[in-house]
Structure formats: C-alpha cells, structure tokens
Amino acid sequence: MSRNDTDSLPWYENPAPGTGTLAPRSWYAASDARRLSLNGRWDFRLSPAAGTEDESFARPEFDASAWTSVAVPGHWVLQGAGGAPAYTNVVYPFPVDPPRVPSENPTGDHLRTFELPAGWPDEGETVLRFDGVDSCARVWLNGVELGDFKGSRLPHEFAVGRRLRPGANVLAVRVHTWSSGSYLEDQDQWWLPGVFRDVTLLHRPPGAPRDFFVHAGYDHRDGSGTLRVECEGAEGRVLVPELGADVATGDTVTLPVEPWTAETPRLYAAELVTPGERIALRIGFRTVAVQDGVITVNGRRLLLRGVNRHEFHPETGRAVDARTMRRDLVLMKRHNVNAVRTSHYPPHPAFLDLCDELGLWVIDECDLETHGFAEVGWRGNPVDDARWTPALLDRAARMVERDKNHPSVIIWSLGNECGTGAGLGAMARWMRGRDPERLLHYEGDPSCADVDMYSRMYPTHAEVERIGKRAEEPPADAELDAGRRAMPFVLCEYGHAMGNGPGGLSEYQRLFERYERCQGGFVWEWIDHGLAHPELGFAYGGDFGEEPHDGNFVCDGLLFPDRTPSPGLIEYKKVIEPVRIAPGATAGAFTVTNGYDFTGLGHLEFRWSREVDGALVASGTLAVPPLAPGASADVAPDAAGDGLWTVRAVLADDTGWAGRGHLVAWGQAEVGTPPRPAPATGARPALSGSTVTLGPGVFDAATGALLRVGDVPVEGLRLDVWRAPTDNDNGAPWQPDERYGRLWREWGLHRMRHRADAVETGSDALTVRTRVAPAGRDVGLRTVYRWTAAGDRLGLTVSVVPEGDWRVPLPRLGIRFALPPAYDAVRWFGGGPGEAYPDTRAAAMLGQWALGVDALQTPYVRPQENGARGDVRWVELTGDDGRGLRAAGGAPFWFTARRWTSEELDAAEHLTDLVAGDRVHVGLDHAVQGIGSQSCGPGVLPAYRLEAAPAEFSFVFSPLG
Ligand code: IPT
C-alpha cells in the first residue's frame, strides 16, 4: 500500500479516520442548551455492495416511499431488514488485505426527515452527534454532505450551521458493513452493522464552552478535595452548593470533602455556569496513583473484583437501552462486583454516568483490536504501520475526551489484542499528555513499555503466584524486566465463563488476597451473546449460516443472554464477597474479616441462625465490632447448640442497587456430628421365581439388576462415569492436549460396556460382580455392587477397582438409574440451592432445599453437563402423591436429576434439542471431575482431577409414601 494507493481509495477504505467532524469533547447528560433526539424510525434501504456512486437518496426531494424502515438506534441485521449477524472471534471474516474490504459490502442507506422545533435558536451553532455507527458513516443534511467517519463505538459530531432549516430537514446516512475501520475492530463479538447508538441534534449557544475538563483530586492525608475545571471556549464559574464552593473556571479550590470510591460513590451535584450554557456536573473527588508498585485510590490499595462487559442485548445487539444498562450495573453490585473493563470499546456514554452513581471502578478501553493479524504472523498490523497512526490517535482522543469527566474511570486501556507496534506508543503518549491523572493499561505488549501495570489474560494460578511474589520469569531485556517487575499486576481477563464454570475462582481470589501486587481481575465475561432466535432459542456462531464462524465461543458470560444470572455469577459473588465469615476457633464462633478496601461494616447487619435437620431452631442478630478494612474479629452468637450455624451479612439500609436485607456475604459452621444414615444390614435375600427380594429391594435373579424399591420401579441402576462434556472440558482448539472432553471420547468413556460376571446370593447380601469398560480399549473398572437391607432400607456399597493403564481422569464416578417421570419433586439436604462442582462450590450453602427436576437444570446455551448439587447427605424424589425414593449417602455425594440422559444432553446443540423423555434420570456420584477454565484458560487444578483409583461408596435407599 503506497501513499498514493490509499489516497485513491474510497473514503470507507482509506485508513484516515474521517473528514468534516468536529474535535471530540466530553459527553454530558444535561444542560440548558436545546437538544433534539433523532432516534426513532428511519427509512432504510439495503444494497449488497458499497460501490454505488448513486447518492441521489441524500437529496431532500428523494422519494423513499418504496423503502423499508428500521429503528435507530439499531442494527439492521437484527430487524429483518436484510442480511444477518455473523460471529467470529479472532479471524477476520474477509481477506486480510488492509485497508481494502470486500466488494460484497452490505450498505445501509438511512433517511430521517425531522421538524426543527419552533424557536430553535438562530444564533450560535448546532451540531449533529452520532454516538455510535458500525462500521462507518457518510452524512448529508438537506442534500449537503457533512463528512464521513469511522470508529464504531466512538462519538462523532458535525457542525451543521446554515444547512439546518426551519421546518423539515432531511438527514441521510450511508453506512457500510465493512470499512478500513473494520481492521481496527476485530473484537470477539457479532459483526453488527448499523446506527446503533443515539443520534442527536445539539444547540451550541454563543458563549457556551467548547469543552471542559473536571479535575477533582482527594488527599487522604488531610481529607481535602482539590477542584479545578478547565473550560475551553468560554469562561465561567463552577458552583458546588453542598460545599459552598463558587469558583472561576481554571481556578483551583481546596476544601474538605468526602471522597468518591466505588464503595462510597459520593457525588457532589454541581453546575458549570458559562455565559451561554449551564451544564449539570456530578463531581467525585478521588486520586489514582501507583505507589510502591501498587495501584492506589485515595492512598489505599485496590482489589478489583471485576467483569469484562461487552454491550449486548439478545434482541437489539449492541444497541443497549438505558434500563438494560442500569440492570447490568445493579446486577453487578448485587453480586459484589466492584469493577468493569469496558471490553473492548467505550460503552454507551450514559453507562459511565451510572458507574459514577452506583460505584464501580472502570477500565475504559479504546475501540481497538487487530487480533486477526495474529493469523498472518502479524504482517501488516495497523498498530505497527504509521499510515494508521492518525486513526489510532483519533480513537484515543475520542475516548478520552468523551469520558474524561467520570470519577469511575480510573484507567484508560489502549485496546485489546493488537500485538505490538509504535502506534500504541503514540496513543499512550497522547493519553498521558492529555490526562496524567489516570493510569494506562494494555495487555498485549509483554514489555509493558507504554503502561502503568502488568496485565495478563488467563495465566495459571501458579504463574499468578510467581508474579505475586515478583518472582516471575524475566523477559529477555533486563531493563524491561526491572520496569515490569516493579509494576502492579492485574488480570484483565481470567475465569472464562463459557458454559458450565469457570472453575478455580476461589484459588485465584486467595492469591489476590495474599499478594499485594495481585490487584484482582476481570472475569471473562459478563454476558452470553446469544441472539434470540425463533427456532433455536438463543443462537450462536454458525446459526445464521455464516462462514467462517466460531460457534458458541460467543456464549461465555456470567449472565445468560436474557440476563438471568448463571451459576458462575452466583459463585463469583461468593468468591469475591467483601466480608469473610469463617468458622472460628471455638464451636459456634465465627471470625469476621472486613474485606472492603475503604469502608467499615457499618452498612451491614449480621444475622445468625441455627438449623437442625433442616428446621430453623433459633436465630438472632450478631454484634460485630467496628472493623477497619482488613481487620478481623471473633464473634459468637449469644446461644449454643449442635446443628448448622449460618451467619449472614445483609444490607442494613436500602441502597441504589439493592434493598435492606440484601445478602452480601455469609459463612457456615456445622457443630456436632451430622446424622449419618442408619446401617442397612441383616436382612436375608429371598429367591422366588425369577426375582430376588432383599428388604424393600426386588432384583432380577439372573442379572442382579435392581427392579424396584418398595413400589418404586427403578431402571438401569449401574455404575456411571460419563458426563456431557462442558465447554471447559472440551477446551479451546489452541489449548494443550489435556483437553478432557476430547480425551474422554478418545478413551471411549461415552460408550462404556457393562459385563455381569456373577450374581451371588449370600446369607445377608446380594453381590453382583461386573466389569465396566469402554469399547475398543483395554482398560476397565472392576465393579462390585453389594446389596444389603434392614427393615425398609436397602443398602448399596459399590467398589470400583481400575484395571489397565488409565491415563485420563474420569468425568464422574457414581451410579445412575431412571425413575418414572412423576417423581420430579426433589428435596435434599446438602449444598444449594444452585449447581456446584468440586471447583465451583463456594456458593453452595448447606441446608435443606426443594426444587422440581426442571428447575434443577441450568440452561447453558449449548447444552452440557450441568445441575449437580454437591455435599449432599440425602435426596428424595417424589410424585404428587408423596410416593417416591430416598437415597442417603454413606458420605456426602453429588446428585443430578434430569429428563434426559447424559448421552442426550451430549448430543444436543441448542436448548431446543433437549426433549423431555418419559423418565427421570438420576445420578448419585461419589466424585466428579472439576470444571476448570480451559475453554480459554488453565484446566482443572490437580486437586480437582478425578483420577481413576480404587474407590468404595455407599447409599441407603428407602421407599417413601
Ligand atoms: C481473549 C480476548 O481478549 C477476548 O476478547 C475473548 O476473545 C476471550 O479471549 C475469549 O473469550 S483472547 C484469547 C485468544 C486468549
């Protein structure tokens, strides 16, 4: 690409950022200047290619009556207006030939006729603002071209001047799906063209500021705030009535204030008063720094308990309405999340207002990712090609200028996954120059040349620990090593929440708490990007026939697409809880630790309860002394006794994000010996015809198969090792070979065969000897079922001895059986109410729980193993008539119950493939393999691997009703 080449390219292929737009400035929600929203129905026409020179549609007299219409903000591909969404993660869906894009470049022409409201001022200027157009736009007003721009998730303004007319005006916008900007926007998400954020006409009165920059620092040593508002293009005063402050723009005032933190989002209502405009401000005083290798705010170390948030709505894509934005933040706050990385682009500007108000630390990330160049050895990477630098600087400026007045934003991020290059350095220099009061982040450059923190995605626990000790492997260059080793450390992405999981969050959290340098991280990611689909429920990559695509890798969130929290979010809430309540040294006592970074525990109320056999026997409130951040105290309820003690920390008052009583943190202790099932031995098996009866059990005499427990028919009870591999079992294609989903199938664990070797009727037991082994392999599990009984109790002890050279862990080890479909009411004592696996069990609270079989299922967008309950002592499955089966464990166990088999679950690609059969399939597991995070991260930690090893476990069954 030579200079002349790019000059001769059409505007949308030229790497230059645009023409005709105004310099960027800050976004604000309210002022007394007039504004007119141009959101609504727009006339729309889709053309298959960008090449058309026909611009007649932009002329005011153009007749668009034959066109269709779309909603703005919106993506036309989600509105039945032609075309379809397409998903790729890393790979560009077009040839990598920057800055050229395909001729097949679906082009949306948009038209909007609007009435200029009466009294719209003549004097001053009027600007037309686009908050987001994907991927580029060329704009005409009343037939006169205003200019063009790229930078999908960034604002662009034009001065409309005399082109605006009283009465009717016609705005024409041409949008191409692909542009040179697409090379800079290779984020892992759906490709969704359209005018997807607001379009607004804004009056700029004479004497109004062109822009302003609020500097509001906090000095934790003396409790003072320092305020200075730089104002460009006008002079004025800043009024902060609550502080009695009235200060000229440009002047500095220092006065006692309450600081802003994510825990205490103290905002002062203020006003910027200039001759032409009064602008409402909300000022938060805080100071961000790196001190002694640690990120601090207001002098204190931060622990980021974060999530990566893409903008997503299952119906409207990246056009996210205000209610949904607030909902996201309320859900985050309710789940103890204190930080958001706006992956991988600046969000809708109003989102940051909400972060200021509700209290979240924000890493604001620039709209920049060139990951697809990794597929071609990073050849031609725009961040390493000076011809793209103006576009990079334009993006940096549009983000920083737009968002610079938000106290919540403490870190700017250059972008995501761009490799390395001088363009990034240029962005960083500009950002530092413009805003030295915030920190810089970028993960993709291991030298950390441009940034203030060492950031990584998906490292193992072991590596995080080494980094925590500042003892990581040094990079080749000693100088770089010294620089980086002195830096604080964050995980910009970890805990890949794809499908069931992520596992191992607790272990990361312990590292963040242990090592000062490890300042937490951001789980990948907030929400599944499953698009609502009439036949499939939620669609993922490939469901619209696109090629290439990356399948369900787009569904890797802590929320399901409809924003229901997944078990991953419930687990994360518990793992990052800001108060630790742990069993204390003496029975019934608890150690309470304040894990907040800034506040005491005064906003919480502590409530205790004691349960025996699932019944509440006593409860009360617990007096916890004032505790500074990091401090602990031992406290004991004013009562004693055996049973299950639970202490809950709940909100003492209503907040902007949850009401009084909302559960923030909890801890439990079991005091005394938990009851164990009475033994079931002594009864004598009796042969009669083709069956053997043993206590309530009736067996097939020839095969030893259990047929009934009392009146309850039981089918197919046998050893089970298979589970429908989770996304984390399957791992990502680029992961090391220890990808169990694949290995398990290679080893044939999905097709185990059961050979009966002996059925022995003894004096007090029925013993069935078997060998369970995969077809095509020479490994096996010698499995002996020993049945005993006493009264109405039927005991089963299963012993398993592996044979051969097992080189893979087992998915699970337990028994399965099927019950009639009516036995679908489940009650259990154990962990609950939600799903748990060995490395995702922090949130499982001990207690007695009841749920229907259908409610036990977790609706992962791509069906997979789910719904296990852990630490179970007993479980009962009953029908409406109260009849059913109870199973108690010799030791705590795991159970699942579903209306389909693991094989059917495995075969399903979408939830709509799961069809309820005429059985309830029950799994009672002695042990299960952990979950890990290998769909894009480390696998299962060794402690949670279920190795094939000799095992023995037992259950006692009894009929109910
Ligand atoms: C990393 C990306 O930054 C993120 O956008 C997303 O794709 C995530 O992974 C996986 O879901 S990049 C990955 C190849 C490490």
UniProtKB/TrEMBL annotation:
Keywords: Glycosidase, Hydrolase
Domain Beta galactosidase small chain/: 691-958
Reaction(s) catalysed (UniProt annotation): Hydrolysis of terminal non-reducing beta-D-galactose residues in beta-D-galactosides
GO MF, one annotated term: hydrolase activity
Domain of life: Bacteria
SUPFAM superfamilies reported in the protein's UniProt record: (Trans)glycosidases, beta-Galactosidase/glucuronidase domain, Galactose mutarotase-like, Galactose-binding domain-like
EC category: hydrolase
EC number: 3.2.1.23
Family the UniProt entry places it in: Belongs to the glycosyl hydrolase 2 family.
PANTHER family with a match to the protein in the record: BETA-GALACTOSIDASE
Name of protein: Beta-galactosidase
Organismal lineage: Bacteria, Bacillati, Actinomycetota, Actinomycetes, Kitasatosporales
